[in-house]
Amino acid sequence: MKLSWKNLLLWSLPIIIICFFVWQGFFAPTTNENNNNIANSRMTYGRFLEYLDMGWVKKVDIYDNGHTAIVEALGPELGNRVQKIRVELPANATELVNKLKKNNVDLDAHPTKNTIAFWNLVGNLIFPLLLITGLIFLFRRSNNGAGGPGQAMSFGKSKALFQMEAKTGIIFDDVAGIDEAKEEFEEIVTFLKKPEYFTAVGAKIPKGVLLVGPPGTGKTLLAKAIAGEANVPFFSISGSEFVEMFVGVGASRVRDLFKKAKENAPCIIFIDEIDAVGRQRGTGIGGGNDEREQTLNQLLTEMDGFEGNTGIIVIAATNRADILDSALLRPGRFDRQVTVDIPDFKGRLAILTVHAKNKKIHPDVSLNIIARRTPGFSGADLANLLNEAAILTARKRKNSITLNEIDEAIDRIIAGMEGTPLIDSKSKRLIAYHEVGHAIVGTLLQDHENVQKVTLIPRGQAKGLTWFTPSEDQNLISRSQIKARIMGALGGRAAEEIVFGDAEVTTGASNDLQQVTSMARQMVTRFGMSNIGPLSLENEDTNPFLGRGMGNNNEYSDEIAIKIDKQIYYIVQECHKKTLEIIKNNRVIIDKLVDILIEKETIDGQEFRSIISKYTQIPQKN
Known about the structure:
This protein is an alpha/beta fold. The chain contains 21 helices and 14 strands. The chain folds into four domains: 31-109, 2-Layer Sandwich (Signal recognition particle alu RNA binding heterodimer, srp9/1), CATH 3.30.720.210; 161-339, Rossmann fold (3-Layer(aba) Sandwich), CATH 3.40.50; 345-415, Helicase, Ruva Protein, domain 3; 426-613, Methane Monooxygenase Hydroxylase, Chain G, domain 1, CATH 1.20.58.760.
């Protein structure tokens, strides 16, 4: 709201009125109070009558409707000089006036100003005046389209951010690692700029494009790039902004949004986190949400109902496409679904190149090495990685980012902040055996990933950590690879059992055992890698709050459940037995590695493998 002289006067008027009345009531004394303050001494009414009979009273001023008198008198008690004395008069002193006249006393009556009625009137006017002023202010803000309380009168209006020429500062060249998705949207931008290329062969503009992918992969960034590339009006809104407490408000906002879009067609509508409003209808315990479902119904109608929306392209983003309503995903509404997945090596390298432009990186640092060390990182993770490395560089007062800061940033993102190093004690030695147990089992198994680092420096809740370099392709995993991972997870517990005995086994392997049990159970119930046979006995998508799996959770008989438990126990025991054999056969190497680890606190993967290769042969990894 602009601070004009009208607005200033509108706000200043009630404040000035209140301040004036407060000053009048508290700081402007009446004439009665001024005269009363002159009389410092008091006299009883009986003593006053005695002074009156003796002729010592010279003048009397009556105040407060005959209740108070200021008397000018003299006498021996007053030092034989005239003084002013305050006298409280009784209510029935009717003969006093006659007595004063009889004694020739100068009499003067001062009537009290009646301000009670005035103040009652003022009190009754102040609140309505303030109320009217506030309502005028609210209506003015509502009409101007400003935010704040004034929007209470227009909560059914769309809250979408509208830009005729969306200058986001991001174009397609700034988006890396998702080349396939960029090609899809470059085609849409071309359709908006030059539709005749497509209409000449009978092609129609797609009505909606759904971006699907894990968090941090660049879905919103890609939408900003579309806004920067396409010189068309751009509406952006979050799915949660449609839904309100009142039923029908979300549907009203959808209607208002598409009404504005039709007036500015061709244009783009971007809805971020559409799963907040596009969740499946009628699902969950106790039914669905009426407000959300009405909003979704209105969105479905606007996208592909009886009235077409020519020239409006709806782009939506979500990381939960599995919970979206099927009517929303059909052709005619979202014609295309573009997957924005975790980037591969080339994608990570391209993303690092983009984010490294404004960073001072040492020439010895290779982005190829960073890209190979960060499989599974999303675009947001990689941006955060370089930012954390820059913060560490500034903290150390260095001029450029080195590989040490990169390594520390990777460790911090994966495992958490670095804790206080452990002192040399039995506990530190036990943790060292535990971590070396993980590392040596993973190194000596052909189907296990390579060791990247073994450290005794605490991070997060872990007192020690062993990192393995995950493979690039995590989609297809063989039975031997899963068993190798189970054995690698059991390596820490097995080392404790062999070195310290069963009585000294600690709780440090609790998280490892959870992972072991989960992997073994998935082998049996989901992947068909057990003696039960190639059966999928459990469904991954069992969520009662999405309307799934609301019946019997077990999709198999009790007899099959017993077989599942036996197979899980068999797989874990078999892997545990083999792990114990590896620890026993390499006890000398383990003791040597533990001594080195306690001394250095961190051993990288290459050094770890070179030490082992002096004592035994390391299998070639697949």
